[in-house]
Each structure stands twice: as structure tokens, then as C-alpha cells.
């Protein structure tokens, strides 16, 4: 890992520290027994490899003024700062306002870097090595916020970042569409088998 990082740091290419290109804040600590309400709370379990599972997010009630500094915006990068797995997701604005839980660090791109571009880098072999280097935990992940913000990201033109992002999002959309179709076809096959066994009523 040291050789990989050393080679990258000395390759002569332009880089920018994350801390120079983002605003950073920790998520909100919300009691588990809080009343159900209008605000969504994104937990680590809601973060998947392909994005945030908005359909399983739980909702809670709290005065909005208490949440103002935590409300998520389009393009925010959510990073698991604690837990057992490294996770990085980009937030997309939903119908209801949402916050991240306290074991998630939020990066809000301000200039030079797009949210998805940060995600791509942190999920690369090099990015994972950097995350490992700023992990102070033993049995579970405990990312150093200072260390995270010191990670140098390759600085490329925004137009190139946007090209990579659009390619990724188109591919993801196509993947999800094919996955849904494959699931429908598989369900149909299973249904045909049940009908062949004379058990079609179980699929009604």
C-alpha cells in the first residue's frame, strides 16, 4: 500500500486536497425512539454499492431549525466514517428532506470536484488505500476526518468529470433496467413451473 501511495503522490500530476474543494460535516445523532415524521434519516444500512436505498429509509420528527446544518443537498457525498464496511454514496434530492446519521461523514463539493468524481476516486484501489491509511479503528472502521480531508484527489477539468459521471449514470440506469427485466423473466419462469405442478393459485 505504501508503494502505491508513494508512486501516486510523486507522479507529478496536479492534485487537490479534499479539504480544499468541499465543506465537511458529520451526520446528525437521532434517538432510535424518536417519533415518526417528515424527515428521512439515512443510516449505514441504507447505503449500498449502487447507491442509497431510499425506499428503506426511516422517517422521524424534529424541529426543522435543529436540522438546518445537517439537511442533505443534491450531490453530497456520504462516507461511512464508522462501521464494518467502507461505503461511499452520492445523495440525490428526494421529495422529503433528509439527513445522514452520526456515523456518516458528509462532503459537500464547492469547487473543482463533483460528488460522483470523489466517489469514483475513493472507490478505486488507490482511494481505498487512502481510506485505509486514515482509518484509526481496529475491529471497526473509524475514519479520521482530518486525514480524510487531507487526501489528494487528481484535479481534472470539470467537463471530463462530467463525461465520466454521465457515462456511469447511463450505465447504472441500463444495468438496473436489465436487472429488473431479468427478475421479471425469472418470476415468470417460476410461475410457469408452479402452474405445471398445479399450484398456480399460490401465485394469484
Automatic annotation (TrEMBL):
<keyword id="KW-0175">Coiled coil</keyword>
<keyword id="KW-0680">Restriction system</keyword>
<dbReference type="GO" id="GO:0009307">
    <property type="term" value="P:DNA restriction-modification system"/>
</dbReference>
<dbReference type="GO" id="GO:0003677">
    <property type="term" value="F:DNA binding"/>
</dbReference>
<protein>
    <submittedName>
        <fullName>Type I restriction modification DNA specificity domain protein</fullName>
    </submittedName>
</protein>
<dbReference type="InterPro" id="IPR017043">
    <property type="entry name" value="HsdS_prd"/>
</dbReference>
<dbReference type="InterPro" id="IPR044946">
    <property type="entry name" value="Restrct_endonuc_typeI_TRD_sf"/>
</dbReference>
<dbReference type="InterPro" id="IPR052021">
    <property type="entry name" value="Type-I_RS_S_subunit"/>
</dbReference>
<feature type="coiled-coil region">
    <location>
        <begin position="165"/>
        <end position="192"/>
    </location>
</feature>
<keyword id="KW-0238">DNA-binding</keyword>
